[in-house]
């Protein structure tokens, strides 16, 4: 029977979370908002519109949301040619694909950004499909991105594992009914990931690859 390995990308396979923190912080600063970096860090992983709402509140001027998102996109885009994969990212995807797992990416990135992330991972031969936030009505922590990934893989939730680095990932995976694996390379504490639903937590993709026999991928 087919099995699906669903992966978040930012902070899970590519070392981008702190770039997102810095560029969101600068986008907010340019618009006159002083948002602490630690608050931005904990919001990374939400879709852009949800991130802005989470950090500025529901009483903000929503007409400015698009400008904030555009500023972040432009600032972050300066790094597209040098995004670094996390240790073991490509090797992990290729090993799982070789073991018979259908590897699907579940990400809010699209277009040039998604292309840059995939170039960084350098494992297109192992990736069966990509589920983008553009394909669903609600992003993480809603379950739709993970559910869409399962549809692309043609695999039921009970035969899938979802790997991510944020509480939003863990909540999305749990709500979709899949087993969740957390990684610490996104910068969040183990306790936060476990509380949000992680069945197991590893340091990074390399650690998960080396420990796969004792993981939900066994």
TrEMBL record:
Q: Which GO terms describe its molecular function?
A: hydrolase activity
The UniProt keyword set, sorted, is: Hydrolase
Keyword Hydrolase on entry: yes
For whether the record's keyword set contains Repeat, the answer is no
What InterPro entries would the database entry show? HAD-like_hydrolase_sf, HAD-like_sf, HAD-SF_hydro_IA, HAD_sf, PGP-like_dom2
Q: Name one Pfam family in it.
A: Hydrolase
PANTHER family in the record, alphabetically? BLL8046 PROTEIN, PHOSPHOGLYCOLATE PHOSPHATASE
Its name, as the record gives it, is HAD family hydrolase
Organism of this sequence: Streptomyces olivaceus
